[in-house]
Design a protein that fits this description.
Layout (H helix, E strand, L loop, with lengths): L2 H14 L3 H6 L33 E5 L6 H19 L2 E4 L5 H9 L5 E4 L4 H8 L1 E8 L9 E6 L14 E4 L5 H10 L12 E4 L3 H10 L4 E5 H9 L8 E6 L7 E5 L4 H12 L7 H5 L5 E4 L2 H4 L1 H9 L6 H5 L2
Parallel strand pairs: 1-2, 1-3, 6-7
Antiparallel strand pairs: 3-10, 4-10, 4-11, 5-8, 5-9
Protein name: Phosphate/phosphite/phosphonate ABC transporter substrate-binding protein
Family: Belongs to the phosphate/phosphite/phosphonate binding protein family.
Pfam families: Phosphonate-bd
C-alpha cells in the first residue's frame, strides 16, 4: 500500500472526528488536539463535562502495541483479558493492530477503549486520541524501564559510536523513541549524527532491525533492550553473534491507558484489574521477564524525558506527524 494513500486516509479519519465547537469552549489544552481540553494541567485530556458524552460499552476492546506476530501476543494476553473481564464485568475483545497510526486512530474514533502504546507513540496517543496513560509493567519494587542499545555484529570493526560513520544503520520508524527519536537527539553528543555521518534505513520494527544486524543487512542498529531480550529468549537470534556498542540510561516502556471518555466507574474498574493482576506463572510473566506487576505512572512525569527528546527532534503531535510514521 502506498504511503500517500495511507496518509490521505489517516488525515481524513482525523478530520472527521474533529470538533469545532470545543475549540471555542476550551480555555486550556496545551498540545492536545482541538477535540480535547486540559483544564487541570495534567497534560492529558479531561473527561467530558457533559455526562451524556461518557461511555460505558458492553464490550471493551483492548490492543497491545504493534508487534511482528500479533497472533502470538493475543495468546499471551488471554489470561489477563480474562482477568480484566472478570473485574469489570464486561466482555473484552483483543484487537490486533498493524501500525501505531492505526492504533491511535482506533482510539480516537472510539473503536478502542484500552491499549498499550509503545514509548515513542504514547505522546501521539495522548494528544491525538485522548488516551490517559496510567500503568506500566514493572518489578516487585516498582522499578521499570528499558535501555536504548546499539548492536553490531560480533566481528564488526565498529567499536565505538564514532565508528558508525559511513555505515548503514537501521532505525525502526520515525516516531519510535529508542528506534529513532532518541538516537537523533543523543547520538550527536556521542560523535555521530544520523543521516549526516551514516545512512539511516528504516526497518519497520525493532525485531527487523535486530534480525537485519544478525544477517548482515545492516552494519548496526539502535534497538530497545526489552525487545531484543525477548527475542533472544525465544531463540530468534544467537546473542553470541552480536555485540553492544553503547547503551543509554533507562527509558519508560509501553504505557497502558484508557480512553478519556469512559465513565469514572469503568475507568476505576479497569485500573483495578491492571493493578490486581499477578504475573506469576502466567504467559505475560514468561514473555516479559524482569517484571511482575503493573505499576502506576503519569504521562506528565514519566514521559517528560520522551517529550524532551521529541521536542529536540522537532516532533509535532499532529495527524501529519503521526502519518509520517
Amino acid at each position: 500500500m502506498k504511503r500517500s494513500f495511507i496518509t490521505a486516509g489517516l488525515l481524513a479519519a482525523f478530520a472527521m472526528t474533529g470538533t469545532a465547537t470545543l475549540a471555542e469552549e476550551c480555555a486550556e489544552r496545551g498540545a492536545l488536539d482541538t477535540m480535547f481540553c486540559d483544564a487541570n494541567g495534567d497534560l492529558v485530556a479531561d473527561a467530558p463535562t457533559d455526562e451524556s458524552m461518557l461511555k460505558d460499552p458492553s464490550t471493551l476492546v483492548f490492543a497491545y502495541t504493534p508487534v511482528e506476530d500479533p497472533a502470538i501476543y493475543e495468546d499471551i494476553w488471554t489470561p489477563f483479558i480474562d482477568h480484566l473481564s472478570e473485574v469489570t464485568g464486561k466482555k473484552v475483545q483483543f484487537f490486533a493492530v498493524q501500525s501505531n497510526s492505526a492504533e491511535v486512530e482506533a482510539m480516537r474514533s472510539g473503536r478502542l477503549h484500552i491499549a498499550g502504546f509503545s514509548t515513542g507513540p504514547t505522546p501521539f496517543a495522548v494528544n491525538l486520541a485522548g488516551v490517559e496513560p496510567f500503568a506500566i509493567m514493572g518489578s516487585e519494587d516498582g522499578q521499570f524501564g528499558y535501555k536504548l542499545q546499539v548492536y553490531t555484529q560480533a566481528d564488526s570493526d565498529i567499536k565505538e559510536m564514532p565508528d558508525l560513520a559511513g555505515k548503514r544503520v537501521a532505525h525502526t520508524s520515525p516516531t519510535s523513541n529508542s528506534g529513532n527519536q532518541a538516537p537523533r537527539a543523543l547520538f550527536p553528543d556521542l560523535g555521530v549524527v544520523p543521516d549526516q555521518d551514516y545512512e539511516v534505513t528504516y526497518s519497520g520494527s525493532h525485531d527487523q532491525s535486530m534480525l537485519g544486524v544478525v544477517a548482515g543487512d545492516y552494519d548496526a542498529a539502535p534497538v530497545a533492550s526489552e525487545v531484543v531480550d525477548r527475542m533472544a529468549e525465544r531463540g530468534l537470534y544467537d546473542p553470541a553473534e552480536v555485540r553492544i556498542v553503547w547503551e543509554s540510561d533507562p527509558f519508560p516502556t509501553t504505557s497502558y491507558g484508557v480512553a478519556h471518555d469512559l465513565t469514572p466507574e469503568l475507568k476505576d474498574k479497569i485500573k483495578e484489574a491492571f493493578f490486581s493482576y499477578d504475573f506469576t506463572g502466567t504467559a505475560l510473566g514468561e514473555e516479559f521477564s524482569g517484571v511482575s506487576k503493573f505499576v502506576p505512572i503519569t504521562y506528565k512525569d514519566q514521559w517528560a524525558v520522551i517529550r524532551q527528546i521529541q521536542s529536540a527532534n522537532g516532533v509535532e503531535y499532529t495527524p501529519q506527524g503521526l502519518a509520517a510514521e
